[in-house]
DNA sequence: AAAACGGGGGC
DNA sequence: GCCCCAGTTTT
């Protein structure tokens, strides 16, 4: 995989995304420009489907849209509001601890540096980078399951470690592309390059893919 | 009854 | 780097 390839991929995805991207608003897009909502949505989204995350987040933010309001809620209520997302007890604790620390240590604002974000319990590189990109519009490479799967299929990395994928993409592309490539790859993964039964027959990037001819489906 | 949903943290 | 963990929803 070379820089030329990724630039061609970006060009094609820019065109293709109009064809198959679903109009549905993702939870992150909805929470866009509110670093706090991006952050908390990310906690809720762990191991749960996007739609459930969206609904649970909406219910929670309806009740507590800010760190100040959030830290005032009893843990049981937070747990109840996000119940369908699963792991509600752990998530409620993390949400409350983060909210408390935001108020106590940052005056109720979400910090905008990777290191400060990573210092919160429950916040890893994926969440921290998503807060930077979607919450603050700062460059970041956010490797979720979609991005990681696609980069493996394209031969960027041959690892189970998403951090390696993040570093590979950082090295391959200048920062001005980072937000866009993330958006394009996630949409590509959600709509076409699925975990199982990807829609290879309508994919224009199959020459980049190690999967071609192996288990083509549909 | 089993699979799908995806990331963080500990060792 | 590998392995373990948290629960609900869907099939």
From TrEMBL:
Q: What is this protein called?
A: Endonuclease III
Q: What is its EC number?
A: 4.2.99.18
Q: Which GO terms describe its biological process?
A: base-excision repair, AP site formation; nucleotide-excision repair
Under Gene Ontology molecular function, one entry of this record is: 4 iron, 4 sulfur cluster binding
Q: Which species is listed as the source?
A: Oryzomonas rubra
Domain named HhH-GPD: which ranges?
A: 44-191
Q: Which UniProt keywords apply?
A: 4Fe-4S, DNA damage, DNA repair, DNA-binding, Endonuclease, Glycosidase, Hydrolase, Iron, Iron-sulfur, Lyase, Metal-binding, Nuclease
Q: Which InterPro entries match?
A: DNA_glycosylase, Endouclease-III_FeS-bd_BS, HhH-GPD_domain, HhH_base_excis_C, HhH_motif, Nth
Q: Which Gene3D superfamilies match?
A: Helix-hairpin-Helix base-excision DNA repair enzymes (C-terminal) (1.10.1670.10), Hypothetical protein, domain 2 (1.10.340.30)
Supply the CDD domains for this chain.
Answer: ENDO3c
Purpose of the protein: DNA repair enzyme that has both DNA N-glycosylase activity and AP-lyase activity. The DNA N-glycosylase activity releases various damaged pyrimidines from DNA by cleaving the N-glycosidic bond, leaving an AP (apurinic/apyrimidinic) site. The AP-lyase activity cleaves the phosphodiester bond 3' to the AP site by a beta-elimination, leaving a 3'-terminal unsaturated sugar and a product with a terminal 5'-phosphate.
Q: Where are the transmembrane segments?
A: none
What gene name is listed for this protein? Answer: nth
What does the record give as cofactor?
A: [4Fe-4S] cluster
Which top-level group of life is the source organism from?
A: Bacteria
The entry's free-text remark on the cofactor is: Binds 1 [4Fe-4S] cluster.
